[in-house]
Design a protein that fits this description.
The protein has about 180 residues and is mostly beta strands. Helix content is about 10%, strand content about 50%.
């Protein structure tokens, strides 16, 4: 019993100082975009990488490949009631928002998998909605952090995706 007690005291004495160390912040912190219309709610949870002098599209984020649309865990979109995206009804629930960036257009993918890390386990068979949107080049501004915003006007909203000098708009309608 004395050996166990001595071991326990020594263990706590050695490891206790480490318990007080602060948890380091992620280089790509979690961010949330949200909007509400009447009793409908949308929330997009994503990790926010920064440009940090890097060439983003075509280099860090390759053209023509499925991207998690952010960093770390795949971007998740949660809606409390059905909405219309690209003239298609998306039922209430939680989904993953993947994209396939290209120079002129992005493919927007709403996928039924969620809780994924990156796009490594992306399964096209789980796609619910897939469509293309044009790329808008920003001339007077550079978005250092990857940013998703929701610009809402009553029952209509645009999901805005910004990074570097790129802007993509995904139209949405609350129903």
């Amino acid at each position: 019993m004395l050996k166990f007690f001595s071991f326990t005291i020594l263990w706590f004495a050695f490891y206790a100082p480490y318990a007080q160390e602060a948890v380091s912040e992620r280089p790509s912190p979690v961010n949330i975009a949200r909007a509400r219309y009447k009793d409908s709610y949308i929330k997009i949870t994503y990790s926010q990488p920064h440009k940090n002098g890097r060439e983003i599209f075509g280099k860090l984020v390759p053209y023509g490949q499925v991207w998690r649309t952010g960093a770390n865990e795949s971007t998740e979109i949660t809606i409390s009631r059905n909405v219309i995206i690209n003239n298609q009804v998306l039922k209430a629930g939680t989904y993953t928002l993947f994209t396939i960036p290209d120079k002129e257009k992005w493919t927007i993918i709403i996928n039924s998998d969620f809780g994924l890390w990156g796009a490594y386990n992306y399964n096209q068979k789980r796609d619910i909605i897939r469509f293309d949107v044009p790329v808008h080049t920003l001339n007077n501004i550079v978005y250092e952090p990857f940013t998703i915003q929701i610009d809402q006007k009553n029952e209509l909203a645009d999901i805005l995706i910004f990074w570097d000098r790129v802007k993509v708009i995904v139209p949405l309608k609350f129903i």
